Every structure is written in structure tokens, then in C-alpha cells.
Amino acid sequence: MKVALFVPCFVDAFFPEAGIATLELLEKLGCEVDYPLQQTCCGQPMANSGCEKDAAATEQLFVDNFAGYEYIVTPSGSCTHHIRDHLTAIEQTDTVRQVRTRTMELVEFLHDVLKVKALPWARFPHKVGLHNSCGTLRALRTASMSEIDEPFFSKPMDLLNMVRDIEFVMPARPDECCGFGGTFSVGEEPVSARMGYDKVRDHKQAGAEYIVSADSSCLMHQQGCARRLGLDLKFIHIAQILNGAAA
Amino acid sequence: MKAVDHVAGSKKFLASEDHVSFHDRRLWDLRQGRDAQMRAIPEWQELRTLASQIKEHTLGQLDHYLEMFERNATANGVKVHWARDGEEHNRIVHEILSQRGVTSLVKSKSMLTEECEMRPYLEARGIAVVETDLGERIQQLDDEMPSHVVVPAVHKLSRDVAKVFADKLGTDPANADPYYLAEQQRETTRPIILGAGAGMTGCNFAVAETGAVVVCTNEGNADLSANVPPLHIASIGIEKLIPRQEDLGVFVRLLSRSALGSPITQYTSHFRAPREGGEMHFILVDNGRSARLAMDDFWYSLKCIRCSACMNTCPVYRRSGGISYGAVYSGPIGAIIDPSFDLKKYSGLPFASTLNGSCTNVCPVRINIHEQIYRWRQIIAEQHQLSYAKTMAMKMAGHILQHPMVYRTASDMAGIALKVLPRGLSYLPLNVWGRQRENPVPPAESFRQWYLKNRKQDTSA
Amino acid sequence: MSSRDSILASIRAAGRTPTGHPQVPTFDQYHPVALERFQTSLELIGGRWQAPEPDIMELAPFVRRLFPDGTRFCSVVPEVASDYELSSFRQPAELAQVDVGVVRARFGVAETGSLWISEAEYRINALGYLPQHLVALLDPEDLVGNLHHAYQREDFRQARYCVLMSGPSATADIEGVLIRGAQGVRSLTVIPWARPR
């Protein structure tokens, strides 16, 4: 199966290990992975700031890079949400529509398309707090939401449960937003920081050694908060654990 | 009119750990109360859908239902008035009161009357107005807007209330016991209720087929305000209409469960006709609602039943407090209706959000709140209401990210200490990021650099 | 153009497409008529359920015993004698002197522990709110299962004023502390007692 890999701008710049792990994991699972070299960004930062017009050219570049692939996989829930739900600054041609519907977040792809049942190389003997970003949770619906009385389900947890010796700890507020929110993180810095502090403290009091997420942006924010607070917490992208990272 | 600075307001609120931690915990408790009620009612999602459909149906024929309501209320002996805006509403109220020589008015909670700024209008004309709801009374005495539509003084601690009451009511400044304070409010307000010339209430639901107004309180202060004085005036936003009496079953079952996690408010009061020897007036108020009805992206906000579930769940509201929004309506619902009152003044509110979507999930009438917040951002940007700095940052980001060569040059990290974010990420200024967080540490190489070293492929581009 | 006409015109100009009014079910399967359910719901919202001893013939002494310190009873039910002639009240405000009001609810709602009371029951509406305490008689036969059933009743259409009273007056406006007996009655006591036949 051939897939194209989209590595978002901040993953490229700050969390290349998440991109590398994604690539290696997809290859281990039998995919042939292309990485279109002219890719940059999906346009989310501009669109979420109200500047859809400024996002248009970036969105067009995204479509141009990924047109023609059957699957476009990215280790970012928020970008996937933007592409599928908000990539509307450009004319909606058939190609655009196709690229939009074919873009999948990594967990979605592993769970729903590859239907992964085993990860024999994966072992992570640590206490882990799972952070489902609001994008993956409420937009992409990769897990059940506490506001709705629906039966419990969690695609990321299904995958993480295939990892040997992993142990989950539950924070008191499992799906409260961590406060990154894109430009909110600087545009509303006081509340953003407070939300991040509350989030990492919650995971810490639950006993987490690691916080794992499908979104590096959330992790970047939480890590910044934890470090400033002097909390002994480590942060890791889900791709890394599934790919066999030991720590 | 300057834009409301939510960030500054939030910083002020966050400066007091006692206040913000209580506020956050208290409202999260209410959210959890709502969750427990939801789990106890197997038909919860169906009720939400019914409520949404009934409201949508009503708003689709609002003129028809308003006329029906007026006809029935009039036949019941109620005098019905219409007000285009807040100013007209206030004039009508004043006319009714002054014609009858009323100089003392008591009222129960009504966000609409706050919208109309009725109290200062009447007070300037010699009519004393006393709020009977405890939370509203605290705010009135403190000369501050209510911060929450259901619990107006939730941002205050009991010691703050003790100070207000000591200053304004002469209570014991050293006594911050809530029971004592509530009793003081009861004792000082009661004589005013007993001597008032008129009582005003708001309206939770206006039933078209019977001409009745329904008001939900926990204190019974609407019942006091309406049943003790000889004259009752109810202010009704035109979006409060529902078609049938039996529709109340859906809304009354959803309202208090969503708001407070209790099955029903202590008093659900129905006013259909004046009592023998009494007088009743209804004022139907537009004040921008019919204009909002015409907005394709935002008319859904008119379904709102003012339950406050969105505020209770909102992680931003809980940590910034309602006062920081500078408007009658705060939190998520405020973010989507306030810009329709004044786009410039409230241009910052749709950005006081992470677009996390929790509000939409708890809304009993299924308003797509977070989607409307996103849409307002586009309008605010189009209308040049973004800050200059933000506009420039977005233009620059857009320029860099659309040109792969420019982006890659900007991203080149090799051996350079992180002083500024890669220009493609310049919309996250590090001096702001770094106030309360450590800056992200740049890796030795970017993904792209690693890829070219380890996996280079000849892809045509 | 009058304000009325201008508002209606503005609404029509909004151009919203009418949609259908949904059928509202009564959800009976979840909410049976049950006195026990009423009692639990009532107590949840701060009301008191006081069933008299099974063999008592006279209700009045039982009610009086519930309020040993209360001397001024204003009753509008035949079962309990009133300390006041109702006609002696010229203004509703005068009911503020009453310690205990006694009224009969027309019906109750099991789902929420609510009592339905109108001006026909109160005689003077303020009786439900100005006395310090309220006692309400409820015939156990006068019960509906849930609010959907309540709102199908004609009673609402005939009453000028009516209330679904669910417990005593309450507030939690000061630091979230729940206070029963805010501005209205400090307590609500419900006594199961059949209607006079």
C-alpha cells in the first residue's frame, strides 16, 4: 500500500522524531511511504486566525503536493481536522475534495485502514497519561467524549494496548482542553499557560511518567509548562511508542 | 468604542489563585452535575434533538408565533408591547411605571433588561430598582455586571460578598458566612418587596398557543416580584417563543439539568393572566434579534435558552471569569452573539477560545457554538478588526508557507541556537510564549533534513 | 411604521425556511407514576415528606406538631383550621406575618418531586412565598409520571398563575454553598392526604 506522508511545519521543525517514527512505523507495517519534498503546511494557523485568504496559497500548495495519492497520513490530529473540515479557502475542485477526504491522522489510519492488531516490536514499560487532543477527540472522533453518554471507545488506546508492559493512569479531567489552541497559545497567553499548568499537574498527580498524544502541538505546549513548573514529566508522540521507542 | 481586552481581564482574574481555583472548581462541578443528569436520562440526546427542532421550527415562522402569542395574551387580559431596541424597551417600562406613580420596582433576573441597560435609565428618572435574585443583588450593590447568566456572582468569594454587604447594607464586615449573608439579603430585601409598586421578571419561555410566560428560579423571587406588588411586567426577547404548552416538557426537563445538574428549578412559574384586581404587561423586545435571524451562519444562536452549560464547560471561561468578556453575555455563547451587537467592541471574544468544541456537545439545543466562533473569526479578519500585529503575522506566515524554498531557508536549524522561531512559525512570538513556559528546544536536524540524509528519493517536483 | 410592524417585517425579511414541528413523545417507559419516586425526588430537592401515622383521623394537630414554634398558621384547606380569616388580608404583602402556610397541591409530578399549585389553590398567590414555611397536602392519587404528562393537562390553560414548586426556596449564589430557604419559604413539607370526598 502506498501512502504519502505529511509532516506538519512544527513537527518538521521541533518534533522530527514524531515524523521519523511515523515513517518507520508505516514501513514496518508494509506501506510504501512517499514524502513529497515541496510540502510545507496545511494552512491551519492562518485559517484559525480568521485569515482564510492568507491560507489559500498554502492550502493550494498542500493539494498540489498530495494530489493523486490514495492515502495521505499525518501525525497530527489538528492538521487532519483542518484539512478535512476547513480547507475551504481555495476552490473546491474534484482534486481538492479528493485530497481532503483522503487525509487521515495516523491513529485513524492504523486503526481503521490498516486495522493493526499487533505491534510485536513495541514495549514501553512506563506509566502513561494519554492526552487526546480536542481535534482528534471531538472533530475526528477517535475516542468517546465525556460530554456525551456514549459507550466508551478509544482508537489510540486500542493501539497502545498492543504495546507490552505499558500502564495507563487516568487524570481527573481526561478530556479537558490543554490550552494550546494554535495562536491562542500566544494570543491568550495567560489563560493558555494556566490551562497547560492544570493539565500537566493533573497528569502528574495521577502518577504519569509520560504524557503521550497524537498531537505534537499539544505536547509542545504541555512540555513547556511542565518544564517551567519543574515537574518531572516526559512527553512523547504516540507514533514513537507504537514504533518501538523504549523511552 | 474600544475593543474589550479579554486578555487583560483574564490576567487580572488569574492574579488571584483563590478566586480562579474556586471559580474553576465550582463550574466544573456544575458541568459534572449536568453529566450525571445526562447519564440518568436515557432519552437525553433525543431531548436535545427535539429541543433543537422545536426552536428551529419556531424561528422559521417567528412572526406567525409572535402574532399568536400577542393574540392569546391580549385575550387573557395582558397588555402586550413591542420594542425595537433597548432604548424603546426602557421608555415603555418607564411610561407604564410613571403613569401609575410607581417609584419602587423589584425584579427577578433578566439578562434582557441588562442588555437594555434598564436600571440606570429608570434610576435617572427617579425609580428605585432592586434586584431580588441574591447573585444579581450582590452585583447590583457592587456596581458590576453579572458574570454568569445563572450564578451572577460566581466569580466572588464569600469574603468579597461580605465586603459589599458591609459597605452597602451595613452588615458585619467580619462575618463572611454564606448563611448569614443570605439571611441579611432576605431581611433587607423583603421590606422592599412588600412596599414595591411593581415587579418585573424576565422570561425563559413564551408559549404562543396560550399566551403564557414561564420563568424558572430557585429562590422564588420571580413569584415574589410578580405576586406581591399589584403590577407585573415581563420583558421577553422575541426568540423566547415556543409554539405549544406541551413543548415545555422538553425545555423544562433540559434547562436546570444543563445549568446546575438538578432536575428542575425550585420554582417553574407560569404567568398567563393578571390576578383579580392586578395588572400584567408583556414587552416583546427585538434589540438585534431579527437582524441575527437573517445571518445564515449565526441564526442558530437564537435557539439559546440561557442555561449556561457552555460557560460551565468552557476551560477558558472558567479560568478568565465572566467579567473579562466585558459584555452581558460571556463565555462561548457570548463569543457568538456579542459580535452581532458590536463587532468592533467584541472582536476579541471569538479569539478567547481554543475551538475545542466542548460547548457544542453540552448545548441542550444543539447550537454549533464552536463552528460559529470559527466563522466569526473570518468575518472579523475580513472587516479589518484584527490587531495590526496579528494581521501582519498571518500575512507573513502565509507568504512563507506558500513558498517551499522560502520556508526551507527559514527552517534551517543547523547549529543555530533558538532565538526566534523559524519564520514560518513566526505567528508564535517566543517572547510571549516564554513568559510562563519553557521554549521548545530545537532538534539537531529537522525531519526534512533527516529524510534527505537517510531516505532521499527522487520525487519529481 | 409601528415597532410591532417593523419587527415583524424584519423577521419576515430574514427569509428563514420553515421546518416541521417534531412529535414530542411522553417517554413513559422511563418515568412510571410512582409515589416512591415522587418522595425520592422531593427529598433530593430539599422538600420534606411527612406521612402521618396511618390511624390518625384529624390532620390539624399533626400539622401543628410539625412546627412547635410556629404560632401563626394561615390555612386555605378545610383539614386545617386557619388562624386568619383570609378576607382580612387586604394586600398580599400582609401575608408576611404568617409563620406557616397550608395549601393543597392539585397534582404532583413523580419525575421531579414537583407540586402543581395555582391561584385556585392558594386563594392569595403570595401564600406560597411570604410565610416562613409551607405545608402542602397531596392526594397520592393526584400524581403524574413526568413533566411531559404534566404539560398535557388543561390545568395550565385555566390558571391565571400556576407554579411547579419543587422543594423550598434555595440558592447557591455565595461561593456555591447551598442554602435552603433563600427568599421564599424556608421549608416545604408535603403531607400525603386524600382529598375530601
TrEMBL record, chain A:
InterPro entries for the chain: Cys_rich_dom
Domain Cysteine-rich stretches: 3-84, 128-221
Pfam families: CCG
Molecular function per GO: oxidoreductase activity
Gene Ontology CC annotation, any one: cytosol
Source organism, top-level taxon: Bacteria
PANTHER family, A to Z: LACTATE UTILIZATION PROTEIN A, UNCHARACTERIZED PROTEIN YKGE
Name under which the protein is recorded: Fe-S oxidoreductase
Organism: Frateuria aurantia (strain ATCC 33424 / DSM 6220 / KCTC 2777 / LMG 1558 / NBRC 3245 / NCIMB 13370) (Acetobacter aurantius)
TrEMBL record, chain B:
GO molecular function: 4 iron, 4 sulfur cluster binding; metal ion binding
GO annotation, biological process: lactate metabolic process
Alphabetized UniProt keyword annotations: 4Fe-4S, Electron transport, Iron, Iron-sulfur, Metal-binding, Repeat, Transport
Domain Lactate utilization protein B C-terminal: from-to ranges: 385-452
Pfam families: Fer4_8 (PF13183), LUD_dom (PF02589), LutB_C (PF11870)
Domain LUD stretches: 66-284
InterPro entries given in the database record: 4Fe4S_Fe-S-bd (IPR017896), 4Fe4S_Fe_S_CS (IPR017900), FTHF_cligase-like_sf (IPR024185), Helical_ferredxn (IPR009051), LUD_dom (IPR003741), LutB/LldF (IPR004452), LutB_C (IPR024569), NagB/RpiA_transferase-like (IPR037171)
Boundaries of every 4Fe-4S ferredoxin-type domain copy: 302-367
Entry-linked SUPFAM superfamilies: alpha-helical ferredoxin, NagB/RpiA/CoA transferase-like
Protein name: 4Fe-4S ferredoxin-type domain-containing protein
TrEMBL record, chain C:
InterPro entries membership: FTHF_cligase-like_sf, LUD_dom, NagB/RpiA_transferase-like
Organism domain of life: Bacteria
Transmembrane intervals: none
Signal peptide coordinates: none
Domain LUD stretches: 94-191
The protein, known as: LUD domain-containing protein
